[in-house]
Amino acid sequence: MIEPEVLAASLTAFGSAPSRAAVTVARLTPGQRLARGLRGAGIFWAIACASIFIPGLHFVLVPSFLLIGIVILLIRLRDAETVVRVHGVCPRCKFEQDFAAGNRFAPTWRLDCRACHNHLDLALTDRT
Known about the structure:
Elements: E1 5-12, E2 19-27, H1 30-51, H2 58-78, E3 81-89, E4 96-99, E5 108-112, E6 119-124
Antiparallel strand pairs: 1-2, 1-6, 2-3, 3-4, 5-6
């Protein structure tokens, strides 16, 4: 994995002034992306193998889980960057925390504050 990059972002909540946040993003090498994709696909392929023993439903479940595994593999192969950490202060309750970081990197997304349970919008302020 290439050295993670820390990006500045802002957290906003309806009726509150924006607060600062830091998003740590890791760039993945092609080998890491392939390993990540095969790991995700392998889970669904294992479920497909276990579904063979369900009478009647195996006609639908096995092909479905095999197809979902292929889709997961392709999606994860395309993800060149992943979010490792999101750290910031809730603009509503001022509680400093690490937010649940999603695997997929996007310029904006929604987060939930653990303290006040408000929905927060995170947006990157710079991208160099």
